[in-house]
Structure formats: structure tokens, C-alpha cells
Write a structure and sequence with these properties.
This protein is mostly helical. Helix 1 links the parallel strand 1 and strand 2.
Length: about 220
């Protein structure tokens, strides 16, 4: 198993959590420096033509891509512990919470978007930060409303077992911290993130604990 990774990649953070929860250790972790544009090089373009992280090679065949697809693959091939509930309605809720982060918020913050805002639209740094804060905040408000208002919320996003929703929530919190977005107005989000970070699988996967990461951001 080979993981293409970068310490700051929030999508790869999600996959690292899932790997840790499943007790899986990649044979090789290949660093793709997003800040230097390594993702646009020929070597990685052959792995993932979209030129985004993460990518996972497991056995024969082309690399798997997109964090949620990789996580569900890992859940299907290594079922314990399960990262999705058993019943369809609960699975839909968990996937919906996860997609608030992975499909609606995070894609608006990734390097190619930030570079476009800076180089193509010529937006200054305060304006770019306002863009980032807008979409981080929109997701956090949606998450807090759904989590605080549901009897299905437990210690974690759905009951008392970790699911893909918690994995995505942890990555959202890490992104908010990178951009100095205050989590104080979101007590349910904060409570669940704190519970997640008590789990070694989450703590070891954190971006700031990866090779090449600075002491703080």
C-alpha cells in the first residue's frame, strides 16, 4: 500500500485517520509538496490526472483518489471497526455530515482555488482570507445546527462510535485552526472534535505531527 501525502493536506489527513483506525500502515508514504507545486509535475500527474491529494495505491491497478471514496474503500476491504452505521437512514445522515466538509467547504479552500484568487482574480490577502473564512464558517454553522439539533448525535457525530462524519469534522477543525477561525460559537462541534482528538488514531494523523510540518501554523 502506497499513500501520496502532504502534511498540510486536509483531505489526506482524513485518509490517515481512517488508516490509523483500521490499523493499516502504508508500506510507503510519498510526499507531494503542494506548496512547491509538486502535484502538477509529470510524476504525480500520472498517478492522479486531477493533480490533487490524496492518492492511494493498494495492490494492482491504478491509484484510488478522492478522500471519501478512499475511506469507503478502506471500510469495505477492512470492515473493523466500521466507519458507517448499519441502517440506510443513519448511513445517509453520516454521509451528509461528511459531505458538508469534503464536498461543500474544503474544495473552496484548496491550493488551486487560493492560487486562482491570488493570481487570476488579483485579490489581496485580506480579501482572500475573507473568502476562506466565509466558507469555513458556513460549513461550521451547518454542522453545528445539524449536530446540536439531532437526538442521533452522541459522543460523536452519530451515536457513540466514530464514523466518517467525525473524520471530516476533525479535518474541518484543523482547517479552521490553520486560518485562525474561532470555533467558540460552535460548542457541539468543539465537544466532538475534542472527543476525537483523545483518540490516538486522530492525534497521530494530525497535520502538525507529520514529517515536514512546522511546529505551529
Amino acid at each position: 500500500m502506497k499513500l501520496f501525502s502532504f502534511w498540510r493536506s486536509l483531505a489526506t489527513y482524513r485518509v490517515r485517520i481512517a488508516l490509523n483506525l483500521k490499523g493499516l500502515v502504508p508500506d510507503e508514504v510519498i510526499d507531494v509538496n503542494l506548496m512547491k507545486g509538486d502535484q502538477r509535475g509529470d510524476a504525480f500527474r500520472k498517478v492522479n490526472p486531477q493533480m490533487v491529494l490524496p492518492a492511494l495505491v493498494d495492490g494492482e491497478g491504478p491509484a484510488l483518489f478522492q478522500s471519501l471514496a478512499i475511506i469507503e474503500y478502506l471500510d469495505e476491504t477492512h470492515p473493523q471497526p466500521p466507519l458507517l452505521p448499519k441502517d440506510p437512514r443513519s448511513r445517509a445522515r453520516v454521509r451528509g455530515l461528511a459531505q458538508i466538509v469534503a464536498c461543500d467547504s474544503h474544495p473552496l479552500l484548496v491550493p488551486r482555488i487560493r492560487e486562482y484568487l491570488e493570481h487570476e482574480l488579483k485579490l489581496d490577502e485580506p480579501t482572500r482570507l475573507k473568502w476562506i473564512h466565509t466558507w469555513i464558517g458556513a460549513a461550521l454553522k451547518a454542522l453545528e445546527s445539524n449536530l446540536a439539533g439531532s437526538k442521533e448525535t452522541g459522543r460523536f457525530c452519530h451515536g457513540d462510535a466514530v464514523t466518517i462524519a467525525d473524520i471530516c469534522l476533525a479535518s474541518q477543525a484543523a482547517g479552521a485552526n490553520f486560518y485562525k477561525y474561532d470555533l467558540a460559537p460552535f460548542p457541539t462541534v468543539r465537544r466532538i472534535v475534542d472527543a476525537c482528538m483523545q483518540n490516538d488514531a486522530f492525534a497521530r494523523a494530525h497535520p502538525l505531527r507529520q514529517p515536514g510540518a512546522p511546529a505551529s501554523v
